[in-house]
Design brief:
The protein is α/β, with parallel strands linked by helices. The chain has a 6-stranded mixed beta sheet with strand order 5-4-1-2-3-6. α1 runs antiparallel to α2, α1 crosses α5 and α3 runs parallel beside α4.
């Protein structure tokens, strides 16, 4: 089954999340179709544009159509982290979250043959580096090269739209405040059911890994 990926936030926002959603092709289309029928949605489903009631419906359908998500996040706020990751490292944070979220599915025994990533955020060179990194990760973790990593226009890909809503939910929950509290209440039952698993990345350890890689590079 495919894994669909999309992110929310970024280095400049101080918080970044990336959702990797494991769901059958047909089920992603059914989920989005049912959501459209109930809400009357036209156009692209975006987490930033839906209200609390619609989001609750989304997660009920997420469960009904047998979706599972791993959400990787990093919090770069606070006085000790303000200068830790410069804005130009946004791509590197994105790649780190992507690897952690996708590997979370593999480690949990969820088999996949395709990883589909939203193409909208980064340039072609950066996306190709992401593709190569995920292909290498899957080869290392599974021992087989029978995987495909490619990119999709979110407007035409129900699975990426689903990942967008999940990433946006956890971004807002991590940011906190009144809106974040509502997000927590909406998603808590589905986290308890195992429909969503969370992985938090320690930013200091992340930066230390980058430094070790740079030091060992020829």
């Amino acid at each position: 089954m495919p894994i669909y990926c999309d992110e929310s936030g970024g280095v400049s926002a101080g918080v970044m999340t990336l959702a990797a959603v494991h769901i059958a092709d047909g089920n992603s289309e059914k989920l989005l179709g049912r959501y459209r029928t109930i809400t009357g949605l036209h156009g692209e489903l975006k987490g930033s544009r839906i209200d609390y009631t619609e989001r609750g419906l989304f997660y009920e359908l997420f469960d009904r159509f047998d979706a599972v998500a791993v959400v990787a996040s990093v919090d770069l706020r606070g006085p000790q982290r303000l200068e830790l990751v410069p804005p130009e490292k946004d791509y590197a944070v994105y790649a780190e979250l992507m690897a952690r979220a996708v590997s979370g599915h593999v480690e949990h025994g969820e088999r996949t043959d395709t990883v589909i990533i939203d193409e909208g955020r980064y340039d072609e060179r950066a996306l190709e580096l992401v593709r190569n990194g995920i292909d290498a990760l899957l080869l290392q973790r599974t021992g087989t090269a029978r995987h495909e990593t490619h990119f999709a226009d979110s407007r035409r890909c129900p699975g990426v739209q689903i990942a967008d809503v999940v990433a946006n939910t956890f971004y807002n929950a991590l940011v906190g405040g009144h809106r974040g509290g509502w997000m927590e209440r909406i998603v808590a039952p589905f986290r308890d059911m195992g429909r969503v698993r969370q992985v938090s990345i320690n930013p200091h350890k992340m930066v230390a890994r980058w430094a070790r890689r740079e030091a060992s590079a020829p």
